[in-house]
Amino acid sequence: MELGKVIGQVVATVRDPGLPNLTFLLVHIVDEHGNVTLPSQVAADPIGAGEGEMVLLVRGSSARLILEGKAPIDLSVIGIVDQISSGKKAIYAKYAPETRK
Question: Which residues contact 52 (CB under 8 A, 6 or more apart)?
């Protein structure tokens, strides 16, 4: 799994017939502090994440497991992050403005 930050949405009205009618998000791959480690990528989003949220992502065959059948998907959102902590220190908290980037 990887951490990502949603920076936008991708709309594709004409698509491969094997691609289900899902929302696609533009995400940066980030570290636990929200620093970008890989630039923008497109992820399928079956759960409804929004812009600015930190999300959990999976790649490859794991990304396709969220769907039935053999969809051509290689990056999927599988969770919306509420908090990241290390030891007793909160590194990120969704509802604490001082930890958001």
Answer: 5, 6, 100
